[in-house]
Design a protein that fits this description.
CATH architecture of the largest domain: Orthogonal Bundle
Strand order of the largest sheet: 3-4-5
Strand content: under 5%
Number of strands: 5
Shape: globular
CATH class of the largest domain: Mainly Alpha
Oligomer: single chain
Number of domains: 2
Radius of gyration: 22 Å
Number of helices: 16
Bound molecules: carboxymethyl coenzyme *A
Amino acid sequence: MTKDASNLPPNSSPPSTSKGLEGVIALETAICDIDGTKGTLIYGGYDIQDLAAHCTFEEVTYLLWNGHLPDRIQLDHLNRSLTAERSIPPMVKELLAITPDDANPMALLRTAVSALALFDGEADDMSPDSNYRKSVRLTAQIPTILANFDRRRKSQDPIPPLRDGSIASNFLYMLHGEEPGEAAEKTFDACLVLHAEHGLNASTFAGRVIGATLSDIYSAITGALGGLKGPLHGGANIKVMEMLMEIDRTGSDPKQWVLEKLNNKERIMGFGHRVYKTLDPRAAILRDMLSKLSSERGSSKWFDMSMVIAETVVSEKGLHPNVDFFSASVYGTLDIPSDLFTPIFGMSRISGWTAHLMEQWKDNRLIRPRAAYVGPRNLKTGR
Ligand code: CMC
């Protein structure tokens, strides 16, 4: 906490602020908990390692939305609803068709999600049932938007979504034009589970602030996507891949490359975290996934380079890898274009964002903190 007593009105106590809201408990949630000292993460009571190993993204989405894992009937119902909502409105397809090929995919996704509201007859219906249906729709349609955009910009015809199968397998199918093998589907599905939720991170907080004004779900998700785009948040995974590619292209020694950046006081993307003071548990799972994937594919280039970088940053700065560090190489190994990494983060985090919005609206209060004014007072225009 910092205190700044300058420019205070007489007889007032100094304001207490926390830069970046560090350590501030802004609200109560039953969705997720992070222990940054122990390096643990739970969704709705379940440890992330258990969920990533044993549950699908659809099951985890149900958990986040309903507070418990689904039984077979509940899961079948959710799967049917999700597959039924995969197609995007024709006007949004037209928007994708006129989007420049070199558009930033996060800007495209943010714009397309905002546009979805225009073609959703219940966009402004704030009933819980309607918001649940829209959460299903958004979760189902974001993969279609991303795959459609990626194919168009490569002058390939968009592939309509399948009417069955998981979100992970359908997305990889729409992106690459062929159904993924079981190992690729399982790996990608686990990545979606790992990115689904993470407490009151910047994008979720932005979404809840917008939702708390009783604005609609599309507005809140559009805002959350804007927050995720930044390189200090979800945008870091793209920067991680750029770093690996630069080291590879220039034939640099990864350790020397990192040391030089740190000497220049530059940040190494994919390291450090506001909450974790030890290894992010998601990074540990992704590291093991990358190791397995690399041996399966017979290419350990990204894994080897990543391990040297991680060892160097830990020993030099005491900073550990976060979720964005190893996920970048996992996605790269799955032949996903690097500028889609952050949109894919959003494609997963939509489940957590919508869970938080529904929780917010169950017991809503406007989120409206105050700022400690440190500007001048008692000035006169003299006019
Ligand atoms: N590389 C080098 N130095 C760093 C890094 C880094 N990645 N992260 C923090 N530091 C240093 C920073 O320079 C500062 O040093 P000093 O006190 O000497 O000026 C100190 O650590 C504290 O940094 P901070 O920015 O005040 O810490 P924070 O809690 O606000 O930052 C963070 C958290 C994630 C923004 C930061 O660690 C960072 O910029 N990391 C790189 C970007 C990144 O990987 N973001 C993804 C975060 S996890 C997934 C997600 O939420 O999307």
